[in-house]
């Protein structure tokens, strides 16, 4: 009976290795399709961003006052203010 127990250990190891091998070699590309599609949408969104807007997250009220501030700064530095 002890010999049978010692023979079952390698049999269980082989069965476990076969199960693990089939699981490890499964097709993993199913999840990659959605991830690659999300990355493509991200790239498209980055390409569509407005390059003329220097600060896309700036407050619109402070952005509208920007030319006035630049004019005031230029007048103050030139001494004609």
| DSSP helix fraction | over 70%
Q: Order of SSEs, N→C? A: HHHH
Beta-strand content: under 5%
Residue ranges: pLDDT <50 for 5 or more in a row? none
Quaternary status: single chain
Number of continuous helical runs: 4
Q: Give the CA-based shape.
A: rod-shaped
Number of strands: 0
Q: What is the radius of gyration?
A: 34 Å
Return the average pLDDT rounded to an integer. 76
Protein structure class: mainly alpha
How far apart are the termini? Answer: 105 Å
Main sheet characteristics: none
Task: Describe the model.
The chain has 81 residues and is mostly helical. The protein has helices spanning 2-24, 30-47, 60-64, 66-78. It starts with a helix and ends with a helix. The model has no long low-confidence stretch (mean pLDDT 76).
């Amino acid at each position: 009976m002890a010999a049978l127990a010692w023979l079952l250990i390698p049999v269980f190891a082989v069965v476990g290795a076969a199960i693990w091998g089939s699981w490890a070699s499964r097709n993993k590309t199913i999840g990659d399709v959605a991830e690659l599609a999300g990355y493509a949408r991200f790239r498209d969104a980055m390409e569509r961003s407005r390059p003329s807007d220097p600060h896309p997250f700036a407050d619109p009220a402070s952005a509208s006052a920007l030319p006035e501030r630049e004019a005031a700064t230029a007048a103050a530095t030139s001494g004609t203010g």
